[in-house]
Structures are given as structure tokens and as C-alpha cells.
Amino acid sequence: MDLLPSRAIRRLLLVTACTACSAESALPATDDGTAHMRPAEQGASSALYFTLRNPGRDTLVLYDVVIDVAGHSMIHRSVESNGMASMEHEDSVVVPPGDSVVFRERGLHVMAMGLRAALHGGDTVVARLHFRPARVDTIRALVRE
Q: Has this prediction a pTM greater than 0.85?
């Protein structure tokens, strides 16, 4: 059995990353699919938003995201209960074949905590998405309002 993933398997993850800062890219955080983070001061927290698409035949299981400027990061889901908003840790995110999952404000997102550097508009942040059983994909996210 060949343990190296085929080209088709490596391309299962299609994440759109914004590579230039312009007036057109200064959009509010929405589910437009563009990988982005909010500006934040060093030592603070920010969140990573993107759309994870799975056009392949195998289920994707995202279990960790490592963000280059974060001390640590966690997959979170924003929830509201009895009028109180909070975040819950998610161990993994499953994306069935042909489906997608949106990471967005007030929903599923990746919290980047203990930032080792300030994030300013126009900066680019690198994130590595870890999937089961053994796969890592890299995305670039633009820092924007």
C-alpha cells in the first residue's frame, strides 16, 4: 500500500487566501471564504476565519491548527445560552465529501492566543491545518478589519 498521498488527496482542501490588501479586501468578517484574521496587539488574542471545502471522496477531519504568531491556538465554537455568549472548544471538525465548513465570527473559528507579535492590517499570517490520519495543509491569512 502506498503511504504517500496522491495529488488528488493533497488537493482536497481548497482554501482561498487573500494575498493583497486593497479597499476591496477591507470587508467585514463574513463567510466569503477568504482566510483572514483581525488586527490585535502582541500578547492578545485574535481569530482565524476561512472556509474549508472538501470536493474529494474521503471525509476530512481537522483536529489542530497551528498559527505561526500564536503561542497556542484552539478550534472554538461561539454559543449563546440564556442570553450569555461563550466559546466551546471543539476537538475536531468533520467535513464530509462534497461539503464545506465555514469558520466565521460568532460561529466556528480558530482562536489564536498569546500572540508573539502584533497583527496589523495588511500583514500575512501562516496557519498549518492538521488532519487525521496524517496530513498538514498550509494557508495564508490576511490581517484585516
A: no
Specify the CATH architecture of the domain 7-19+29-143: Sandwich (2.60)
pLDDT digits (tens, 9 = 90+) for 61-84: 999 999 999 999 999 999 988 888
- Number of residues that make up the chain: 145
CA 29, chain centre distance (Å): 13
**Alpha-carbon radius of gyration of the chain:** 15
- Please tell me the distance from the alpha carbon of residue 111 to that of residue 36, in angstroms, as a whole number: 12
Residue 135 β-bridge partners: 131
Kindly give, in sequence order, each residue whose CB lies less than 8 Å from that of residue 61, ignoring residues fewer than 6 positions away: 92, 93, 94, 95, 131, 132
CA distance 116 to 137: 22
Tell me the domain boundaries of the chain: 7-19+29-143
The three three-digit cell numbers of residue 23, written as one number: 479597499
Q: What is the 3 state secondary structure string of 40-97?
A: ECCCCCEEEEEEEEECCCCCEEEEEEEECCEEEEEEEEEEEECCEEEEEECCCEEECC
